[in-house]
Amino acid sequence: MSESVRILLVENNPADAQLLREFLAEVENTDFELVRVERLGDALQRLGNERFDVVLLDHSLPNAQGLETVTRVYKQGAPIVVLTGLDGKTLATNALRAGAQDYPVKGQIEAPLLERSIRYAIERHRSEEMIEHYAYYDRLTDLPNRNLLYDRLQQAILAAHRENKLAALLIADLDRFKEINDALGHQFGDQLLHQIGPRLKATLRESDTVARLGGDEFAMLLPSVADAGAAIEVASKVLKALEDPFLIAGLNIQIEASIGIALFPEHGIDADTLFKRADVAMYMAKETRNGYALYSAENDPNSSHRITLMGELRRAIVEDQLFLLYQPKIDLKTGHVSGVEALVRWRHPQAGIRMPDNFIPPAERTGLITPLTVWVLDKALRQCHAWHQEGLNLGMAVNLSRRNLQAQELPDQIAGMLEANGVSPADLELEITESSIMANPVRAMEVLSRMTSMGLQFSLDDFGTGHSSLAYLKKLPVNTIKIDKSFVTKMVAQAEDVAIIRLIIDLGHILGLKVVAEGVEDRVTLDKLIALGCDMAQGYFICRPISAEELTRWLRSQPDPLNGGNARVQRNLNPEH
Q1: pLDDT below 70 — which residues of the chain?
Q2: pTM score, two decimals?
Q3: What is d(CA 444, CA 404) in angstroms, rounded to the nearest whole number?
Q4: In-domain check, residue 141
Q5: Are residues 58 and 159 located together in one domain of the fold?
């Protein structure tokens, strides 16, 4: 059976149009339906009313403005192959930046090249759509993620304020989910999470939103409720819906949940406050085992816990309870270690080793993230200098948070630490995320611009999961992009992840950026990344995060990182790593 591809050809030259028809007729096993228009206005009208798989667009249409033509067609949503009589790298790069997927030159086009350009454009466009989709939807459940829920909550707040109504945010956490993962394995846990969404949706209205926030945490947005009682009634329905067992691999699995409820405007008038207070209420429900809890300022045990935790963290910074581990990044072309990423841990006197997820988010909310980041930077730069003194010329990467990027004093602080530790700015890479910039983009870009002028390097972390990855990438002063591990860890089993990774690598290279894959956990994944042309990688297969002393020994022993050469180091790892 022949494949059908519908093409809109925007070409005013009849001879060129006929030649393209003849080339497409040579392609076997594909039925190309070619619809030709001569003017941009006609093309935009057809694209607004009809579906096309790809657009072949003449770069030199009459009454059109060159690359602006590409931009206008790109907004219609179809993939674009630009046809031009000019052969220039700069022009080609600008066309790709404007939204084109490929840029064949007239006079050099033959049937195989034209077919390849069309298929590449369609595949790349689909990959772009997937990236955009996963910026707002959870990869496992395909429910809205935190980004999309946050946007919808902000819209609900505006509407409720305008109409003098109430809105409710419910956050649900599955009880004892870890026990299911531990007993049956993460694969079965993922199957359970996948079944949760339909149960929750069945209890809500069409106008409500169910989202997965991450892990075993879900949220429900009710943009309009009559009163607190109505929100409580929904929570009760959700708990009732979860009572029936879930069938996983032939087993009936019982699950319970704890739900926290926060109302606009009673418990908060902005999205951040409602998220925090619904989260507090959820922990109240978990502690009281009542199934659900409405936020109450008078009975907020979790807020005092956070105050205590932050007080302990402040002492931990002063009393040197924190320590750093380092995970190497490998150049996939040479096999050499190109640098390391510094990762902070907390050796708590009573609770033992605390991972960053336990203390970084509350530190971010309270402002304690600033002295914490300064401690990490200073410690990391000291170690970087020590390695350089030993002849190990390693670059050092340190993560920055959202609050860090709003601090006008940060560039001067970093400059002082670089000088004090004898480290060149070129040896420090600061890892940022798009979400860290979105809180105040103008101020963040000012801070980034000052640090860029100092010669610091920047890496865009978690690429593919942010608010608007493709739109912001070309505006940010970054040297490197890091493919989020959620794409990398499943690329062996999921072909669509390979397509997304290929697109990210191609896009990065077009913009002159290095591309790093994080979360490499096996040889097959590493081989695929090398074949795709990825520049660097890090992950457990190469080396786990280890202490400076262990990493020095690892480097001195001349392991072969591309073949899991760190295995003998991993056998001796301390459990706190």
Answers
A1: 1-2, 62-66, 85-92, 298-305, 365, 438-439, 464-473, 558-577
A2: 0.59
A3: 9
A4: no
A5: no
